[in-house]
């Protein structure tokens, strides 16, 4: 079978049988399409160790720095997608190379640093809570540190998802798995202040207050993106005079270290 046809079947399998998210499916499509970019529309049985070796070399040289650890991590995402694809082909009885013969690149794990309680408070104190945007930002910071939510989970929250009285709610994370989230009393109070300040009736819990107000198919003002949250956290860390690299991911790490 031709690779592109098998790839389409694989992506449909991920969506229907594996119930993977659309983002995961798009990523797998992107990584596997890179193999077509390199080798053309080859047959599945033409994928062998030598082809994979040359493809890896081609991928590695796409980056500006062949020794960049981030590039090696990105390379591994391509290899993981290919292994999953080959496992699918094997289950379907197609002639293909063994998935477990593809080894991932070794990467260095960055050293993790932590914020202390005083640094956390300095970040919390930066938003101007006299404005609705400032209240939103304070509520976001509190929620990130209190709950350990992933950024993708936080931006996907709607107003009716959270229960501020019980201070708990459910989120659907990676692998379409639901898990309970618990928040502190102080976080609930900041969220309530933010919601009380809002005059709109739109669905998203956290929405954009600057730039063009685009509307989605549900008629809602455009919600904040994961990238917006990353910039927000970095901005307030800079205002707080913190020289460490601070990201929303680290917020969850800090939470488990301090609270």
Briefly summarize what is shown.
By secondary structure, the protein is mainly α. The chain has ten helices and two strands, in the order H-H-H-H-H-H-H-E-E-H-H-H.
What would you note in describing this structure?
This protein is mostly helical and 259 residues long. It folds into 2 domains: 3-101; 117-258, Orthogonal Bundle (hpI Integrase, Chain A). It is built from 10 helices and 2 strands. It has helices spanning 3-16, 22-39, 49-60, 69-91, 117-124, 132-147, 151-155, 185-197, 226-239, 248-258, and strands at residues 168-172, 178-182. Strands 1-2 form a two-stranded antiparallel ribbon. β1 and β2 (178-182) form a beta hairpin. The longest helix is centred in the N-terminal third of the chain and has 23 residues, at 69-91.
Query: Fraction of residues in helices?
Result: 40-55%
Overall mean pLDDT stands at: 83
Output the strand order for the largest sheet: 1-2
Provide the CATH architecture of the largest domain. Orthogonal Bundle
Main beta-sheet annotation:
2 strands, antiparallel
Shape: elongated
Which fold name corresponds to the CATH topology of the largest domain?
Answer: hpI Integrase, Chain A
State the low-pLDDT regions, or none: 214-219, 250-259
- The fourth-level CATH homologous superfamily of the largest domain is Intergrase catalytic core
Q: What is the string of helix and strand elements?
A: HHHHHHHEEHHH
Number of strands: 2
Radius of gyration (CA) equals 22 Å
Domain tally: 2
Query: How many angstroms separate the termini?
Result: 54 Å
Query: How many individual helices?
Result: 10
């Amino acid at each position: 079978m031709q690779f592109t046809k098998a790839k389409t079947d694989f992506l449909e399998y991920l969506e229907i049988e594996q119930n993977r998210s659309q983002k995961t499916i798009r990523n797998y499509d992107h990584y596997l399409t890179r193999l077509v970019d390199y080798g053309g529309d080859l047959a599945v049985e033409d994928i062998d160790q030598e082809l994979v070796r040359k493809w890896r070399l081609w991928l590695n040289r796409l980056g500006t720095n062949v020794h960049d650890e981030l590039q090696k991590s990105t390379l591994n995402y391509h290899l993981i997608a290919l292994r999953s694809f080959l496992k699918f082909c094997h289950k379907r009885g197609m002639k293909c190379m063994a998935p477990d013969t593809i080894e991932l690149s070794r990467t260095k794990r960055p050293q993790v640093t932590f914020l202390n309680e005083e640094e956390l408070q300095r970040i919390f104190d930066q938003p101007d809570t006299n404005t609705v945007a400032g209240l939103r930002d304070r509520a976001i910071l509190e929620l990130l540190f209190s709950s350990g939510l992933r950024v993708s989970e936080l931006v996907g929250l709607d107003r009716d998802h959270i229960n501020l009285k019980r201070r708990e709610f459910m989120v659907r994370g990676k692998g379409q798995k639901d898990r309970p989230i618990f928040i502190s009393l102080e976080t609930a109070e900041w969220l309530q202040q933010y919601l009380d300040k809002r005059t709109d009736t739109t669905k998203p819990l956290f929405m954009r207050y600057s730039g063009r107000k685009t509307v989605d198919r549900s008629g809602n003002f455009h919600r904040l993106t994961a990238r917006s949250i990353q910039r927000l956290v970095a901005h307030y860390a800079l205002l707080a005079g913190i020289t460490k690299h601070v990201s929303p991911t680290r917020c969850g790490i800090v939470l488990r270290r301090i609270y």
